[in-house]
């Protein structure tokens, strides 16, 4: 696993124990899943706008925000980035069409 993702996942877990008035992430956990999902939607929109504008540095910045908030959601749901990386690894070598067909058969 990427060290940065692993380190961030550890910090996000630690934030679950912190006071919502002292940690942005703890405040997201305290507000609940709907607030976390709203932030993901906002960040996804900002990422799309940055890409549409072709601003490379802004694309990187907004994608980092999007990934960060997705990781908050994963932690909130008791998941770890390794779970996502394992799924991506499972798909490696499959064509997108094959992978999609497998999902439709479930």
Mind telling me the C-alpha Rg?
A: 16 Å
Topology as H/E string? HHHHHH
Give the DSSP E fraction (strand runs of 2 or more residues): under 5%
Extract low-pLDDT stretches.
none
Could you state the oligomeric state of the chains shown? single chain
From the spread of the alpha carbons, the general shape counts as: globular
- Helix residue percentage: over 70%
Describe the model:
It contains 6 helices and no strands. By secondary structure, it is mainly alpha-helical. The relative contact order is 0.13.
Write the layout of secondary structure elements.
Layout: H1 3-15, H2 24-31, H3 33-53, H4 56-76, H5 81-91, H6 96-104
Defining traits:
mainly alpha; 6 helices; 106 residues
Question: How do you describe this structure in short?
Answer:
The chain has 106 residues and is an all-alpha fold. 78% of the residues lie in helices and 0% in strands. The protein is built from six helices and no strands.
